[in-house]
Amino acid sequence: MEKVIAKLGKENHLNSLMNRLPFLTLIYALQCLLVYHMAKEINLGDFALYMGLSLIFLICSLFIYDKYHHILLYKDHLLVYFEPLNHHRKIYYSEIKEIITPKQECDFSSIMLILKDEKSSAVSLHFIDYPLQVKKVMEQLISQDQKEKETPSQDVA
Question: Which pLDDT does position 154 carry in this prediction?
Fold first, then answer.
């Protein structure tokens, strides 16, 4: 079994989401208040219920994504998988043409992998902690992979 070199984190996004939860709840309450005062013909109970369920669904979806969507870096490939659906995708470093990240380092952001294959030209990795650091590590792994493929292996007798 291959050894995992690194697991890309999403803790900063999860922490950011939890820190903003009171603000999201306040916006929800303000929307309900505005509807109550401005649109008397709308049933406020149903509106509040649907808005509340939508808010809960959004937060739960982001939490599940952060918690169960994993990206593992190996010596010659990266593995992207989502536990609840047992869905995985292996991307070899030799398939990656370019790695696109934000210009400046940030707590979390998306990383886009442009692939050499025309059929699946890009893969987006969302909410990755410190994307510029991740890009450096991935570029080093890609470089090492290329060097190993260029260097013929020498068997010792």
Answer: 58
